[in-house]
Write a structure and sequence with these properties.
Structural class of chain B: alpha+beta
Number of domains of chain B: 3
Shape of chain B: globular
Distance between the termini of chain B: 68 Å
Helix content of chain B: 25-40%
Strand order of the largest sheet of chain A: 5-4-15-14-13-6-7
Oligomer: heterodimer
Radius of gyration of chain B: 23 Å
Helix content of chain A: 10-25%
CATH topology of the largest domain in chain A: Rossmann fold
Distance between the termini of chain A: 51 Å
Radius of gyration of chain A: 24 Å
Largest sheet of chain A: 7 strands, mixed
Number of helices of chain B: 17
Number of strands of chain B: 12
CATH architecture of the largest domain in chain A: 3-Layer(aba) Sandwich
Shape of chain A: globular
Amino acid sequence: MSGVIDPKFKENVYSSVCFGCGFGCGVFMRELETKAVETGTACGAPILNIDYRKASPVNQGKLCRFGVNLANIYCPAASSVKGKAVSDKEAVAKAAEVLKNINSSEIALLSVGGTTNEEHLALMKIGEKLGVPVNTGMTGLFKDIGKLHAYTGRGTTYEDVETAKKIYLLVDPYVSYPLLIRRLVHAKAKGAEIVSFGLKELPIATENVIVEPGTSLYDVKEFAPDAETIIISDLTPYTHAKRLAELVEIAGGKSKFLFMRPFVNAAGAGYLSKHTKQKSFDDIVSKMETGELKVLVCLDSDLIDICFNDGMKETFKNLEHAIVISSRDTVICGAADIVIATEPFYKKKGSVMNSEGRLISITAAAGEMSLSGFNALSGILEALGGSALDYDTIHAEAVSMLGASEDEYKVTVPEKKTAPEIKKISDKLPGLEATFSSFSEPDSFVSSASMEDGEAGADAAKHLYLTNPFLWNGALDNDNYVEISRCQVKRSALLKGFTADISCACGEVKKATRFKVSQMADGYVLSQRKQPFAKAPVTHVTIACSSTKPKGLTVSKASKGCGLSQ
Amino acid sequence: MSAPENAAQAGTPAPTGAPPEKKPPAPSAVGDLLKGSDIQVGGKYIGWSVREDIRKAGGSGGLVTAVLAGALEKGLVEHVLALKKSSQYEAVSVLTSDVEDVYASVGSMHMLVSNPGKHLRQFQNDASIALVVKPCDMRGIREQQKRNVIDPDRIFTIGLNCGGTMMPYKMRRVTEEVYGVDPNDVRAEEIEKGKLILETADGQHHAQSIEVLEEDNNGRRENCRYCIVKIATNSDLACGNWGVMPDYSGKATFVEVMTEKGAEFLRNAIDGGYAEAKMASEPAEEARSKVNGVMLKMSAKTKEQIIVPLHSQTFEAFKKELVNCINCGACKTVCPPCACGTEAKCTAFDDPADGYDISLFHMVRFLHLMDSCVSCGQCTDVCPADIPLANLYRKFADPLQEELNYVTGMDDRTPPFFEIKLEEMN
């Protein structure tokens, strides 16, 4: 006996969905109910393991790096009020008390799709009672493009990708949505033309077209979608409205779209909330900064993790009450005044909708499902004078609102009304840099200081994030490096085996940054994890060779001056 | 208690004066019902559950279920890894101490590809567990035992004959598109005489030739098609329906006792009133060997078609196969013989910041698994880029394992790499 596990243990197994992104990968979560001497996690999580759900119509048992490591990423939240541990019931009561005594104009509710449809809808019921909408963080896009929902690609399945003749990629699937890769591999094997429009050359593409973030798609002659094209892009809090408008204008009437989502139920939350008048992230953050917003309720939505600007933690201090309802212990729990801890996502009774528009239920293969999150929301509603919520009723309402089949093997799309006429609006929308530089300093959703022009030298470049599940969920991976083109390496006089010092106009410098030479556009730096020098989607930076020589490395005369032979 | 035997089919002489009939097939079993004390290591028997409902649901007499239930209820093990089915296409193995879970897991599992060897590891030898395995599962477990990861004294294994398994999602699609049947209507499946037979809720049987299915890449997983171990003689009890003659067809299981522990568990099932058994007849033994021989011959032929030898492949070909790797690490986490844990040579030498043309992670694994790959195909199953990893591993493993006549996971032989002595290389 190793003494690690009590022999009288019980195993619970849940047929769940990976919460890393909105792809909707099926996964079995194994939970050992045991007296654990060592749990293997510092945060008190039960002994968890994943298993591969080979019958899943979405991923057939395959997972990306995030999914493979899912069991290590989960840490349970704990209910608290002002940092003091309390029971879940007490936390619910305190949250209700706060919401009861505040003007509705001073409250914002946020649910980006980090939890089930049923919990999202329950929060919407609270919103109705309070007279405030539930914000999904995507309104910044929708308010500009109006009827974009008609074109968000629901119903274009991953299997459709496999049989497409032409695929336009506006995301890097290797990093952002890795389970797309096999679909593209199959499509390519069947002869599909795959054109990537972006900064990096993708091995899966048959043609790579370098398109910089600020470039208008109208100016890209290779971007010529037709009726046989599937366009794969994504909708994230950082998606640029102008680019999205151009996509719809150029291809909306003829091509199919598949819009990937960054959060597990971003599609479901988006569709449930689509007729509500929401605020954008920027509206919410601006009101937090000015003090107009006094209470923010976040339902499995970590605004601090989602935000590239780490000043967001400070901004939270402007709130009178930050109420966090969370199934995991994430950064935002530490900044909250009230934390209502709920059951882990993997065992929540409920459903999510993935990027295809597929409704997937979370079920138990062994063990019990939990409704503690749903019941907490119901408790708040009751305390506000509403009626207690019945799970089955709310589930049925959500399914009806989504117009989806409950059979996960079928993607059902509600009957489409006549597609709205596409009016050209992209020319009226601000350009990329104008959009992101309009934010105020210092605590806004993205920082404007980092948008200021850097030095226009050979070592100047623009930093962009390659968003991915680890980044969105505040988890660290082995991605502590940036990617730079070979030419940029030479321009910045970087040396093989050395590191780089990267700085921005905001004054932040990251010394000794590891770099990888990639096939990509010159003048850019890409990274997959949050960088102190990059607080916006696009940041001007300067790159210099670190002065510190790595241990054991000898620099020959030939290699000085960056004569790289790599 | 009632034996499932069909006396007429079992070779009872025809009444005198009756017209000459075709010679009846040989019987499966000989002699009377056995007592527990009759069971010996090396013995071959025909057995079945005493419960009619389990015999019916089991498809092959429910002997395996009976042995597991007996082991659990009589305290020979604390737990059983049982398959929890949610449909004919989906199941997950779950640790249980509830005998009802064991009874509920009865039935064929060609489309339920689990990885019990890896599942076992999470219990860290802290529980005594009985489990049902395919030959490749057991090979992985044996390789882990050699590396001191799984304690053989803490597990009891029942190996099932295996002609191959199929990926569940793919088979759902095949059911719909090839069989023209709603997958939700399928209640049972069986492989018989080269056909995959699906039984629907209305009692109808729908059959397709596996050979034809495989021509369209709709049949067994690639590794199963060239697998070299069809009977799990590496487990405690090797069970299956090969060798069960028409007299007991669908009603009994052929079992070979491979270890003393296997004998103990079978005795327990018989003496505890869970199972009955008779001695297997010689024709039954021969029939089992014959089926095995045919299957192995087919495998050898398929292997020639599928595996392109290493010496005839270029480095470029490997680069091309691996170009879409997303560095998820799933192939390592599911690999049954891999005993390295998180600190491994394959990960130590690999750095995503490197700009090498080919993944060092995979290069190290190709070499490291040369003496331990059990050809189970789990790596291919879970690869999110659909890289044919098992095929690539075999290119490296086959030459070494064939040269040294080393069949991984079949016995306690020390892995070849453990025997390398550096001084011999000079």
